[in-house]
Amino acid sequence: MSLVARPSRRFGTRSAQLFWRLPLIGRVRVPRNLVPLLLAGAVGLAAGFAAVALTAVVDGLTIVFDELGSILEGLAGGWTLMLVPAIAAIPVAFIVSRIAAESQGAGVPYVMVAVERAGGFVRPIIAPAKLVATGFTLGGGGAAGREGPIVLIAASLASSIGRLTRQPSDMLVLMVAAAAAGGISATFNTPIAGTFFAMEVVLRRFNVRNFTIVVVSAVVANIVAISFYGDSAGLDLPDLDINSNWELFLHAIVGISAAIAGILFVRTRFFTEDVFEFLGVSLGVRPILGLLGVGVLALIETNILGSGLDQIRVFAEGETAVSTLAILMVLKLIAASLTIGSGASGGAFAPLLFVGATLGALMGAGFESALPSIVGPTGTYVVVGMAAVFAAAARAPLTSLFIVFELSGYSLILPLMTAVALAAALAQLLTRDTIYNVRLRRAGLDVRDERAPSPLDELTVATTMRTDTPIVSRMATIQDLANAMSQSRGNVVAVADQRNRFIGLVTATDVASAVERQELNRRAFDLAVVAPIFVHPDDNLRYALSLLVDHDVRQLPVVAREDETRLMGMLTQRDVLREVAQPTDREPGQRAAPAPVRRLVGAVEIEARVEPGSQAEATMVSQLPLPEASVITAIHRRGEVVIPRGSVKLEANDLAIVLSVPPEEAAVRTLFINHASQTRNNWWFLPHAPNTPDTDANDR
Q1: Which candidate among 13, 316, 641, 687 keeps its CA 20 to 30 Å from the CA of 225?
Q2: 414: Cβ–Cβ under 8 A, 6 or more apart, which residues?
Q3: CATH code, 461
């Protein structure tokens, strides 16, 4: 099963505009620099309400399965309680095997893939599927948490919001990361930890813009959760402090032990998955078997069921027997591995905190027996153990620190920093595996701590795309298609509707197959691949290359960002490989020379100089009222080529290259002329013939 999401974009939708339609008011223009914050707020609202909904579903199903357990116990005895988790897993197995395979496990790796490889795309069906699967898993007693599922649920909602509002891929990625922050913030009442989780684990790229968007989402989501559940620390721990600075050495020992425990948790979780794979158990059966195993373990100790976070306060009070702590730590580790490794829906965050709490309580009890005059309350070791084990398993020290700070009421700063630093560093030395990246590597994706820089990040599609692809009518015959391909020396033809809107592609293979089958009466719309994957001119080549590879296609249509029914060109594998093969001694940030502009079949290139005082001067490209079938393909400004993004503002004396159809040429030129000056001087703009580059078509 592939972890890479498959976008399914469609053409023909309305162009994205910076307008909102409000009741009784009509269309309201939204300032461009305010749009990211509004989107972050919308994502935060979605994440907050999703967290509230998930909590309600889990709590409701917990009551249902508690009643079911009581009924079974009354009918056949206490041993039947082990069947309750397995019964709850039946709908989970159906969901993960038939509806959305992404619903299995924690869900965070899928979000990481969406950020790194899929341009922020997460399937909409995942949100409801993950919500229901998690409700049944945790409601039935699965030994997992809500944090991983809520991250994926919120990411799915954010991705849908971004696609509905026609956001570019970089903004879509940021919205998905902001959703992760909002989900953690609302679930644990920890906005700071949610922010750092998104930045440290999901996005892994720190800058002011990213941080601002993520913070807004986390705060808004937290406000939503507080309005339902109030503002209280998630664990409600007693006041804790250390007796002496000498205890820092003891907490360092806890950090070292936590590194081993964190690594053991990761290995056990994936060993369980390997066992199911080795036995050949189908995905439709694994969750049932896994939760049946959890039910069997619960006959020994029922406190391993669920997230177990409510037990941490009991551990912190230091009244739990050492033998019980040891049993709980081992059984919880196994039960969590069975739950998540079998494919049931649940997160590893809460089990890691539980294992860390039991480890800290055990070590605190041992230190207290050996050094009663130095050692402070056992609860301090419980808190430190939680943070250190999570830091070792997730390799996210900042998230570990802040989530425990917020859950425990901002105490024990020095012990926490000491243990977390040691646990993360030692785990890093011993293994590169984390609770998140192992699943990715097994799927063939290596998400590193820092993304390796690539020259393709600095190059845009507009610098490389070709613009010689012929366009034919949707009613074009097989003969018309063959003629168009022979004239262009290419293997693909674009198909447009009666309003000259791009609707799909026809390849030479499609035409040859139709001829071989003697289906000469077929039309272009019969053969066209409708709604293919596409890119925009300002997308970088790394993203474009990932689409070419992931979807195993040879070319991608390039469409205008402000109107995705306008075809601007085609990007082929050969074009991208040519850029990769270019010399690497360019100056940092230096772009490759722009590709020569070619004439589309049935269209003309217009060179229009922006006259001072014209309508085009000081107007952004996205707001220039060009005719429907026209688009700016390049802007020449003071010897440089400017990519015509929607936010680029035209300046006086800019030379704009506009691709249009002959009937609209006069309307296009009118936008760039100072009509008042013409009237005074009785001078009329003389149209320039478009330059025809002397380049062999095969070169591009």
Answers
A1: 316
A2: 242, 245, 248
A3: 3.10.580.10
Closest alpha carbon to 616 in 630, 605, 604: 630
Mean pLDDT of the residues in the chain: 80
Residue 332 has pLDDT above 90, yes or no: yes
pLDDT in tens, 278-299: 888 888 899 999 999 999 999 9
Q: Which residues contact 128 (CB under 8 A, 6 or more apart)?
A: none
One domain, residues 141 and 187: yes
Q: Could you tell me which residues come within 8 angstroms of residue 571 by beta carbon, excluding any fewer than 6 positions away?
A: 461, 464, 465, 466, 535, 544, 548, 555, 556, 557, 558
Q: How many domains does the chain have?
A: 4
pLDDT at 499: 76
Q: Provide the pLDDT for residue 588.
A: 41
Q: Which of 416, 442, 468 is the last residue of a domain?
A: 442
Say what the pTM is: 0.64
Q: Looking at the structure, tell me whether residues 560 and 422 fall in a common domain.
A: no
Closest CA to 196 of 222, 174, 218: 218
Q: How many C-beta atoms surround the C-beta of residue 99 within 10 A?
A: 15
| Residue 405, token pair as written in the block | 């700070």
Residues 423 and 474 in one domain: no
Asked if 637 and 651 count as a contact pair (C-beta separation under 8 A), the reply is: yes
CATH number, domain of 662, equals: 3.30.70.1450
116 and 195 co-located in one domain: yes
Q: What integer is the mean pLDDT of 211-224?
A: 93
Please tell me the number of Cα atoms within 13 Å of 541 on its side-chain side: 26
CB atoms within 10 A of CB 418: 21
Question: 471 and 359 share a domain?
Answer: no
Between 560-574, 587-601, 609-623, the lowest mean confidence (pLDDT) is in: 587-601
481-511 per-position pLDDT tens digit: 777 777 665 678 888 877 778 888 887 777 7
Could you tell me the residue range of the domain that residue 518 belongs to? 455-580
